[in-house]
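User: structure tokens for this one?
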Amino acid sequence: AIYVLGDLYRAGMTNINVVVYTKDAPSKSYKDDLFQHVKSRFSITVPPSLPLSFVHLHDSVDTSETPKRQSMIAQSAETVKLAWKAMNKLTPHVYIDTTGCAFTFIVAKLLAGCTVAAYVHYPTISTDMLSMVFERRPSYNNDSKITASRITTCIKLIYYTIFAIAYGIVGSMSSLVMVNSTWTHGHIQFLWRLASNLCIVYPPCDTKSLEDLPLESRKDIILSIGQFRPEKDHALQLRSFALLLKKYPDDTKKTWNVKLALVGSCRGPDDEQRVEELRNLSASLDISDSVEFVLNRPYPELREYLGHASVGIHTMWNEHFGIGVVEMMAAGLITIAHNSGGPKADILAPFKGNMTGYLASTEEEYADAMYEALVESKRTGDDSNMKMRQLARESSSRFSDEVFVDSFKHAIVSSKILCR
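Assistant:
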């Protein structure tokens, strides 16, 4: 986003000063260190001519590795307090939120008089969450203790409904709303009914750096990429993989020795405990010898896995977009993603009338898709999988950095929020 604003500044389309609110502590080399990190991690160069400064809020936020768990209302109240402190330090003409903190609009719009814009990655609450509570379906964010009781379910449903109404009211204060996927667009359109200029701007993915990876000579590895968070549902991957080995033992074990590699990062002790539970699950499923956990490794090592693996797997229900899915497609993997959210609506949608991957929901569907993607083409000598790899790579360019820059720039310019 800052790069796009720098682009507009260089082109003389607007005379702006950019201010970034950050929880990081200040230092003499903070700006240079940040720019260097952005360049090395994302291959993005922020123009040095852009007037850019930082407002440090490190003394107002919890920066511990294991912040305390809070309800949605408590979290939203904290963001309002933080916005008040931020606006008192510096009040901008245009406030662009990219963190999903819609309740900060109360301070920015009503109290500080800013023009408000938002880039929404994921709605704080969605109609799917309301449906899950109503149907009493246990999940990582709907405890089985609550689903077991009609009374607690009713109380939670009332709480969610009130919060959704409040979320819709504050979101509607935005003069420009950019969302990252068709799935997010549908939910925000329903909740933020009075918001102006709602459009889809796919998030940037560095597809170019992955397109030079070879499509041939891939190993019999099924690759999973993602933080070890509960919503990623790595347990479904393990159970599906175990079913694959059980249903097709001759092909998967004796002939090709298929492996599952789970590559991701741990944010703290909770995630580390989750990984230990996943290791125990793989042992109980008797697949430990065929499963590899790769934790907190640098990007070059992740890129090696992307260059060697044959199949990618993604199991999060209602993933808002799915950059990891795009990365796997750009790298040439045949990708199997959850039949919901962004992967279903945007990423693995047919391209040029052909499939670009597989969608699945159950253990059975994932196991069969893994078999077809990894093993079946070897048995038949069919080249359809190679065609799918090529199409998937071509399709992934729809989500490149360049497309994001053009789309973000068009949304900013056409909305005229910088001209108010």
